[in-house]
Amino acid sequence: LQLHHSGNYSCEGLVRSWPSRPAAVTVTVHGVPLSGVSLLAQPPKEQVVLGDHLVMSYMVAAGTGPLSFSWHREGSGGPLGTGPHLELKHTGDNVSGKYRCRVSNRNSMAESDPLNVTVL
Q1: pLDDT tens per residue, range 22-79
Q2: Nearest 10 degrees: Cα torsion 9, 15, 17, 19
Q3: What is the rounded CA–CA span in Å between residue 117 and residue 92?
Q4: Could you list the residue range(s) of the whole structural domain that residue 55 is in?
Q5: Would you state the pLDDT for residue 101?
Q6: Residue 3 lies in a domain
Q7: Is residue 13 part of a domain?
Q8: 8 Å CB contact between 51 and 90
Q9: What's the CATH code of the domain at 62?
Q10: Which SMART domains match (predicted)?
Q11: Is residue 23 part of a domain?
Q12: pTM for this model (two decimals)
């Protein structure tokens, strides 16, 4: 089911040559709240060599979209990004820390556990 499947439904038929028209049934499809947000890093193990790239992406165990994102590092100001991935190019010492992704839909918001990134 999708959210746009909400509406009135009915079924018509013939029973022994008599038309049958039952009353319409209203179906409302609700969004599923978000849960189980987790982060993945490439390269794995959240360790990156000074100057290399690090890409973080999210996974959601349950929830319906459309989804919006915000990426955060503990101790930094505003969001670091708003897309489904966060790419850190040419990493330096200043990117070490704990990262989180907040995912939201029309009905709910969920946040990942922190991902501890270490620059070697």
Answers
A1: 788 888 877 778 888 888 888 876 778 888 888 999 888 888 778 899 999 998 888 9
A2: -30
A3: 11
A4: 32-119
A5: 93
A6: no
A7: no
A8: yes
A9: 2.60.40.10
A10: IG (SM00409)
A11: no
A12: 0.70
